[in-house]
Amino acid sequence: MEDLPELVVIENLCFTKQEAATKEAFEKRIQFISDSFFVVEEEGGLVGLVNGPVIETAFITDDLFSEIKANPASGGHQSILGLAVSPHFQKCGVASALLTHVEKEARAKNRDTITLTCKENLIRFYENFGYLSSGVSNSEHGGVIWYNMIKKL
């Protein structure tokens, strides 16, 4: 919780106001899903974050951006609601490290998949980590077109 101000800054540097998680959303996520909310620290401060709840369905639904409940001990689908890296640290392996850590944790808890949505320009980025595109998402979050990406574990 002490990292909350820095989390909000990084989120807002990486997403539009309509897309970015709010301070209140981060507070709920830290409270309920701290076991799937990870950060990278560098040079004495936060430089990146990834978070998302474990869900019952294979794809993200918009209600997840406001309604969070605790993760089950095992099984389910690990979602990624947000992956954000401070612009100064982009292209330095921070996002890769965060994705690798999420996958390691998801495998340890016997999750079925990791699922996320991304904009079209990031499809290839996630494909490089073994995610498969499942077409346009039903999500209307932030008023943009999102694509479903999924990785079987």
From TrEMBL:
It holds the Pfam family Acetyltransf_1. Keywords: Acyltransferase, Transferase. Signal peptide: none annotated. Residues 1-153 form the N-acetyltransferase domain. SUPFAM superfamilies: Acyl-CoA N-acyltransferases (Nat) (SSF55729). This is GNAT family N-acetyltransferase. It comes from Neobacillus pocheonensis.
